[in-house]
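Worked problem 6 (solution included).
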Amino acid sequence: MREATRQAIEVAAIRIFARHGFAASSIRYIADEAGLSVGSIYRHYASKEALFDDLLKQASAGLAAASEVLSSDGDPLALARGFTRDFLADLASGEGAAEFFLVINQGFLTDTPAGTAARLAAGQRSLWDAFADLVRRGQAAGQFAAGDPAQLTAYYFAMLSGLASMRLVIQDSLTDSGVDLVLRLLTTEGHT
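Solution. The predicted structure is:
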């Protein structure tokens, strides 16, 4: 029961932070969204800042886990395909992945609590470095298109970021079936 309440709080907080931004959000808004009392939230989190920080710690852990997967031995194209498929499936699920992505971006901008932006930046840098190395390996295997791996990585993540933002606008129009389309930027297919 306690874990279910905590999850309800986190889902509601993500929605509220995504809609209103950190500064304009309140524990009252989060409680209303979750269908809970304000006291229920304070039993789990000391403050709005503590709740926001906990969400961003989860994001940092997710970035670290994704970096590990992308850095693992294995077929570079299969690893990139799996990462892309999972990202798009999360967006298409409608379970708050796009909103969570927006909250992570707010963590970069607000640096609340202090040090949050640096922690997220380190996780993001680790993920980008792992992906750029994956691109290098894929190029060596003849799977990925020629080009600067860091630049290809930047364009790839810009595309994912744009898709996450669009998910908030176009809602159900986004599906998880665009893996090959997204990867077309990186793969040798379609490049001459």
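Discussion: The mean pLDDT is 89.
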